[in-house]
Design a protein that fits this description.
The two termini are 22 Å apart. The protein has 3 helices and 8 strands; from the N terminus they run E-E-H-E-H-E-E-E-E-E-H. Strand 4 and strand 5 form a beta hairpin. The chain is globular and about 45 Å long. By secondary structure, it is α+β, with helices and mostly antiparallel strands. About 13% of the residues have low confidence.
Length: 122
């Protein structure tokens, strides 16, 4: 079961085996305990469809350095951490996601860092 506080409107999840986009009705159903909702596991194919590129250090979203200037203390190689987990490494002009299991987690981080939705062609 997905926790409703993990989701934003626009996230992609499964209802049974059907891909759906989260809207207010989906959030209400999840809050009410309706079964059948599940997260979409991240796979290499999914990351490619989201526009990430494989690098020797992992999967990278290239973006302008200025988006995370406020987050960077001490230059490149900084981390975004929450709950003792590293979610991405900020290095030069790259965002390198780490520790994700599900698509909605990546969508949420991308939006938090860029203010834009992650475009995924599924």
């Amino acid at each position: 079961m997905i926790q409703p506080n993990e989701l934003r409107i626009g996230n992609l999840i499964y209802l049974d085996e059907t891909l759906i986009e989260v809207d207010v009705h989906v959030l209400i159903d999840i809050l009410m305990g309706v079964d059948g909702f599940s997260p979409i596991p991240i796979t290499p194919e999914l990351l490619e469809r989201a526009g990430l590129k494989r690098d020797r250090e992992g999967w990278i979203i290239s973006y302008s350095y200025k988006i995370y200037d406020p987050l960077v203390i001490g230059g490149t190689g900084s981390y975004v951490n929450a709950n003792r987990k590293t979610y991405c490494i900020l290095h030069d002009d790259k965002i390198m996601p780490k520790g994700f299991q599900y698509l909605h987690q990546l969508q949420n981080l991308y939006f938090a860092l860029t203010g834009e939705e992650l475009n995924i062609e599924l």
